[in-house]
């Protein structure tokens, strides 16, 4: 990496030229602490709060008629938000629906697309996957009478932090029915080559889907162009939808018309939903993969949050994210190398998502020390500190101050006063 000035003045100069700075004031907490945990939970914005209050007001004002009346009609709000979100994932509006939770949506997609037959019975994932994805995959294998020990293939990591795409492709053998991978690895921040992996899967006649939890809202996608079969993601990280905000999913247009694996009230074609027939007529688009009534109060903040995304482009957001993470990696390398703090996120821009992972044996205690200094990081066992600059509210000066805090914590061995034990939520 090239050497950079390690002064705070240099960080301030970068901020003066940075785009997107107009959004920082939208997030009150951004000025109250150094918040580098947006890849776990994004901050509350003024607009998200206002749209939540607007939905509460429609409930107060209209009661049951809120489903069909008011500024944000509840009945098709999930579809409306799906249309707003589609540009962020490179999809057609009717291919995206805001619904459910991340894992519920994965269960829906597995129930729909995992159809073991003949020798094709295995599901291919990776050894670094988020645990919930593995739990869901194992559930569906068991429901089909298969043992996860035999039918779940997890591509190993050579270094414990990253994956080889060639290894993944080599594992796409004739007995694989479905591939499920992350776009960005949740620990290290490695960005996988989605078009390359999708093409390889389809050449082998394998369905492939992606968990986009750590990429939506911080980097562009072209799901329709790439030919991805399905995808799903949460909305409480970079999209700042709030804790437990309603998730989203994508189903390629060529799969529309397939019966949802898990049908429910809101799977219905909306024009006949209230006919109350016992014969389901699925929605003709991604709406068919809804199950139950949308959680309006958990959906509402997304109205305001996505409104901000309509005022910029995901390419501008990605460009700033790349520069923020590049600066963070260079600064950490320059100032923390004497303390055996390692950057384990890939250096190459094309292989890097929106957060940076630092590895150190004392990571859990370093994180505790940081929080006492009003710096909010994220710990992942056994030795990773995750730092996620959010392009809408994180400044270069925030990054400089964060690395400076880590330097002092390491130089003064401040972490040693804390127990070597993670909190219940880390």
UniProtKB/TrEMBL annotation:
Keywords for this protein: Hydrolase, Pyridine nucleotide biosynthesis, Pyridoxal phosphate
Record keyword Methyltransferase present: no
Reaction equation(s) it catalyzes: L-kynurenine + H2O = anthranilate + L-alanine + H(+); 3-hydroxy-L-kynurenine + H2O = 3-hydroxyanthranilate + L-alanine + H(+)
Pathway of action: Amino-acid degradation; L-kynurenine degradation; L-alanine and anthranilate from L-kynurenine: step 1/1; Cofactor biosynthesis; NAD(+) biosynthesis; quinolinate from L-kynurenine: step 2/3
Cofactor(s) required, per the database record: pyridoxal 5'-phosphate
Binding of pyridoxal 5'-phosphate, residues: 102-103, 130-133, 211, 214, 236, 265, 293
EC class name: hydrolase
Entry EC no(s): 3.7.1.3
Superkingdom, natural source: Bacteria
Family: Belongs to the kynureninase family.
Functional summary from the UniProt entry: Catalyzes the cleavage of L-kynurenine (L-Kyn) and L-3-hydroxykynurenine (L-3OHKyn) into anthranilic acid (AA) and 3-hydroxyanthranilic acid (3-OHAA), respectively.
Name used for this protein in its record: Kynureninase
Originating species: Sulfobacillus thermotolerans
């Amino acid at each position: 990496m090239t050497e950079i000035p390690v002064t705070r003045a240099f960080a301030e100069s970068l901020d003066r030229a940075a785009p997107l700075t107009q959004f920082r004031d939208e997030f009150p907490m951004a000025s109250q602490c150094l918040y580098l945990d947006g890849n776990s939970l994004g901050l509350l914005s003024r607009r998200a709060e206002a749209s939540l209050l607007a939905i509460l007001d429609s409930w107060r004002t209209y009661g049951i008629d809120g489903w069909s009346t008011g500024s944000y009609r509840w009945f098709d709000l999930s579809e409306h938000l799906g249309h707003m979100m589609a540009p962020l994932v490179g999809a057609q509006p009717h291919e995206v629906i805001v619904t459910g939770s991340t894992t519920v949506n994965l269960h829906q997609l597995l129930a729909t697309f995992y159809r073991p037959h003949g020798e094709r019975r295995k599901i291919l994932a990776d050894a670094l996957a988020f645990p919930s994805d593995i739990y869901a995959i194992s559930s569906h294998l068991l429901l089909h009478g298969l043992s996860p020990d035999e039918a779940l293939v997890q591509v190993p990591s050579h270094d414990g932090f990253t994956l080889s795409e060639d290894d993944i492709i080599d594992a796409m053998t004739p007995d694989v029915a479905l591939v499920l991978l992350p776009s960005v690895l949740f620990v290290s921040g490695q960005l996988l080559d989605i078009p390359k992996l999708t093409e390889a899967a389809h050449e082998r006649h394998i369905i492939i889907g992606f968990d986009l939890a750590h990429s939506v809202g911080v980097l562009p996608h072209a799901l329709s162009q790439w030919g991805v079969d399905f995808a799903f993601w949460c909305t409480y990280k970079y999209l700042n939808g709030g804790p437990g905000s309603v998730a989203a999913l994508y189903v390629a247009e060529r799969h529309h018309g397939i019966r949802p694996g898990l049908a429910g009230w809101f799977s219905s074609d909306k024009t006949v939903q209230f006919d109350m027939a016992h014969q389901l007529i699925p929605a003709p688009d991604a709406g068919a993969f809804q199950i139950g009534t949308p959680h309006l109060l958990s959906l509402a903040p997304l109205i305001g949050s996505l409104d901000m995304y309509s005022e910029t482009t995901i390419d501008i957001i990605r460009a700033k994210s790349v520069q923020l993470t590049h600066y963070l990696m260079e600064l950490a390398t320059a100032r923390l190398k004497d303390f055996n703090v390692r950057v384990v996120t890939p250096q190459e821009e094309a292989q890097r998502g929106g957060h940076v992972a630092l590895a150190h044996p004392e990571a859990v205690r370093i994180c505790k020390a940081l929080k006492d200094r009003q710096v909010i990081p994220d710990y992942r066992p056994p030795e990773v500190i995750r730092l996620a600059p959010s392009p809408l509210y994180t400044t270069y000066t925030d990054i400089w101050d964060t690395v400076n805090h880590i330097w002092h914590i390491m130089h003064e061995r401040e972490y040693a006063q804390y127990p070597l034990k993670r909190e219940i939520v880390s």
